[in-house]
Design brief:
Four copies of one chain form a homotetramer.
Chain A lengths: L12 H10 L11 H14 L4 E5 L2 H12 L4 E6 L3 H4 L4 H6 L3 E5 L8 H9 L9 E8 L10 H13 L3 E6 L2 H8 L14 E5 L9 E5 L8 H7 L8 H12 L2 H20 L11 E5 L2 H9 L5 E3 L6 E5 L6 H16 L1
Parallel strand pairs in A: 2-3, 2-4, 4-5, 5-6
Antiparallel strand pairs in A: 1-7, 6-7, 8-10, 9-10
Helix pairs in contact in A: 1-10, 2-10, 8-11, 11-13
């Protein structure tokens, strides 16, 4: 009964079917295939605006390539201290950008605020002695399983515009956030001022597929050179594009996100007073104490520790394909544990 | 009738079947899955020696990650002027290595020689004023469709050892070379002194899978940090590993390479006096002249120009899944063209 | 009456004399001159232990070259949030290191503590997903004009050793700290566990000269390749080495530092209750309020704002060659201002 | 009797005098001093056009900072195979540019030709698979002691413009070339289409001073961030600027270059039939054979080997301060040797 992460999940049958369907006949490689060439149109319709979309196979690549495109080597990238780009990518943004400086900010529930960003940007005046403010990076859903509301994003983007910063969004769990908010995908991206989105599909049912989606078309610039040079232009590109097309066109994105969210809600309710943050996506953070974590593990539940060592915190992730009986068992165990 | 490149080809059914078979149940991500954990053993058996093997999704990533692992930023990497790493990867080795210098060498039939390497290395003495010799990069099969013989590789490796250089091999078409030579995979790698191989599967029937295979285990060093940091550690890693396992264990590697080679031999024979290099893998280079190229294209044959503009040179690549009737038609057209 | 920074000061006559004296006859360039070749010995005697010392012309180069030598691109470098390497060098450490991650830590009076470092290092466990702890960077004297005591440094170094980190010291104002502490230069460096020191001379009387001093000789590794490749190996190297030799051998380092410290003490006493930090080097930080800052400026005193905009904070730096009457005038003005 | 290189020479008295003169009173650091602020005007008058000029302390920094400003990381920089940037700077251009690819070209007498450049540029078509042509780098005087004529440079610049390339000039020995040609400094720079010049002073009488001179002001872009970030913004910048101002305003540049050239001409004539290239600056290349080299060394002459090992080639450099009797002795020895 594994609740480690949604990347332990399988790929959805629609995704495998799309790959099989794309596997017919010769087609030009490196993006000049019919599948890749439909990406802009299909994702444009999905988001409700003109976009330029590029397929890659990892979220780290999606984030780092877009950040490097937005920021020169002497840029400052502002992100929450929990952000994947700072905490879990082994310095990838610095590698791709040629050494941009990540600035870690605090904020409740995993969210940045305009105030925190403003204070940080003020420390980097316009002279050659400091790194220069270039990008705000948001994570939607956040690393703590919460979702930015459209107006929260818009307020950040407004500040970003005033200070000359681009807004990048790490959307590894974007579908979960949109499913929770019940909004249009455009409402938490371009309509709220986001310039570029890492639109994740892998965690939510794809094999290995993420789209870098530019809403601000002027920002695309040299993205394609960066992607090729980083080894992220897949030769048989049809197979990545086909996953993304199926993800959006079949409705897999929404079906899978809704199911995972629902299961996470159940777990969150079972967690009761141990719940640390509102459950607004498919992740549940609980402060159980080390003994209860140990007994859950002894009972067969797999999950990651969270927070500082011996803090008693834990993270449970509900994947799109999580078995209902496993979730029910976990809820039961958490309930008993809560009552004990 | 497309003869552009073997990356226009489909994936082999065995590969898709292996992906589907791996798509069951939850498994830990980022390489801690049973498929990835079998790679060392299975590839070790394939090559006949202990290896450390790492899965990635592109040849550019495989080459650049291994070169960056072998060479500091001030290293000199010696390669043939036709080598993919210098001509077709948008400077990826420089990006991954932090700016190592590629040194282009000449050599008949796309092959390096100990003499050419020695002369180049001599230009980089051991002081801080010049880049320092670190790696010889060979391509097997070469970019001109020929195959290094075991003793040719051994002679280069001997020099490399004497001068303190590592030997890296770009094996995007490694299976084609081994199939042509009829040798054991170890004969043109570790037995001949190769330290690291980019073992390509994509062009020869995989979806997107290449293995970086270290024969010299001391050279692995920080490879895994480099891979993660470059966004090339696939989260659902089982799906890349499963391709590589099937590629080797099912015999797809050999069956596909033999078929492609055989078809290329047919095309080479049809090319007659226009043939530029021996056909020892699945690529055929011909000097047809621009008018004959134009008429072949008018007749429906797709292929890339080669060499300088208006040189009349062309490249035909036989893919593993090339239709026999298409090859027959091409041979006929080349024959007629030859006779005309 | 300029109290902006000690880099607005002149060079000491002994330094210019040493340059003139070195300007005789031909001598081999790029460090193979008699002046440069004496650096190890002379600085070794100064510090009381065997060292390897390398001359460069800026503090940014000294810090960044040593950090890049100590840390791979995926390393984490821990420093105080006020540290010059993070706040004032436009991302130089990231550039030189190929993208290492700077981690900003808080600490009273500009000083790091073992506790703050331990908590930060704990966030970077030994796996490929996060940057890896590699260096603690201390500034002596600190950016807030205080000086680490030998036991404070030793406690940090002890933790660093336990966790596998190197200890680098930014000593742009090293002489001021030693002059204040009245200790031996070795007491706050190698005897306290420091691996590498950026030993600054420029601010304290040189023209343009800093020495990177390795106490831990195993750490030197590829420093010389990095220096050359960064354009920091001066061709007529005798002129930089001669400055460093004169700085140490003539006693300029101590005389100048003592004088600047004494003047700063005077200013600090005059500042009275507005003083923000103990004056332990040649910098004085005061919270004057914006009106008093304005009137001081109107009276002809030049100095930089400090802290957040409109915080009313200011920094006064006493240079080695500051005129006594200017300091007296400043003290008088601060006193009156204090009393007003 | 040292003929190793002109960087073994002393600094001219006018340069030291200028430094001493600048060493009075406090002045703002990091380029906001009166000396630095005169650079644009004084060098603009020298070159006869509006320029932006930036002082650094090494030629490697000057070249690499300008190349990095002109070329993205995926750019191709075309230079002669003898060029300092490729042969003697330990890969600095790759480091500063984030991995641009140096392309080595052949050409008689150390000079590039439009034909060689055109053929090389043709190998890098406008797609993501190859590095993109961005800069032609010329060396004036060349590494073989010859000087490009204005029309030779103009022809290269014309091609560069047509192909979208910038033209950078490594002018470590620029004064020697201009003195030989008897032309205006503008004739071999902006009037001939050069965008940026590394205007060297160190080899010709300065202590450590080079100016990066932009004739194409739009190309300046982010140069200042790059310089700071690389540790090449000198804090007491007045002392570097003062050298450059004195170099130009006092006529030292011309006096020293003429003298060195004249001495080299004498050596060249003495070399007779062993002379390898026309002597058009202050370097003399001779093919003496190993025995004659050995006897010259035994007679007390210091010089570097040149060319491949045991080729019998040697380089003699006449510095601005070379003693006449030493040159006379060398000429005599070469003559005898020639006659022997």
């Amino acid at each position: 009964m594994r609740f480690y992460s949604d990347n332990t999940a399988t790929a959805a049958p629609e995704i495998l079917a799309a790959i099989a369907e794309a596997n017919q006949g010769h087609t030009i490689a490196y993006g000049d295939d019919p599948w890749t060439q439909r990406l802009d149109e299909v994702l444009g319709q999905f988001f409700g605006t003109e976009v330029r979309a590029f397929a890659v196979t990892t979220g780290t690549a999606a984030n780092s390539l877009s950040l490097a495109t937005l920021s020169p080597p002497w840029g400052a990238i502002y992100a929450h201290e929990e952000a994947h780009i700072g905490a879990d990518e082994c310095g990838a943004p610095q590698f791709f950008s040629g050494g941009a400086q990540l600035v870690s900010l605090l904020g409740a529930n995993g969210k940045l605020t305009p105030e925190a960003i403003r204070a940080a940007v003020d420390k980097h005046p316009a002279n050659v002695h400091t790194v220069q403010p270039t990008v705000v990076s948001l994570t939607q859903a956040t690393e703590l399983g919460t979702a930015y509301r459209p107006d929260e994003i818009a307020a950040i983007s407004k500040l970003a515009r005033e200070r000359g910063l681009a807004v990048q969004m790490d959307g590894a769990r974007f579908a979960n956030a949109v499913a929770f908010l019940g909004c249009h995908p455009g409402d938490v991206t371009w309509r709220a001022g986001v310039d570029v989105l890492s639109f994740g599909a892998t965690k939510n049912g794809a094999l290995a597929a993420e789209a870098v989606v530019f809403f601000n078309l002027e920002r695309v610039r040299d993205f394609e050179f960066r992607r090729k040079r980083a080894g992220h232009l897949i030769s048989k590109s049809r197979f990545v594009a086909a996953q993304l097309l199926a993800y959006v066109e079949s409705g897999v994105w929404q079906r899978n996100a809704r199911r995972a969210n629902t299961l996470a809600q159940q777990i969150g309710r079972a967690a009761g007073s141990t719940l640390m943050y509102p459950v607004e996506a498919n992740e549940v953070f609980v402060r159980l104490g080390e003994p209860r974590k140990a007994s859950l593990r002894a009972a067969g539940f797999g999950f990651y520790d969270w927070g500082p060592a011996r803090s008693g915190e834990a993270r449970f992730v509900a994947s799109w394909d999580q078995r209902e009986e496993d979730v029910a068992a976990l809820c039961k165990a958490l309930n008993e544990s809560e009552l004990a």
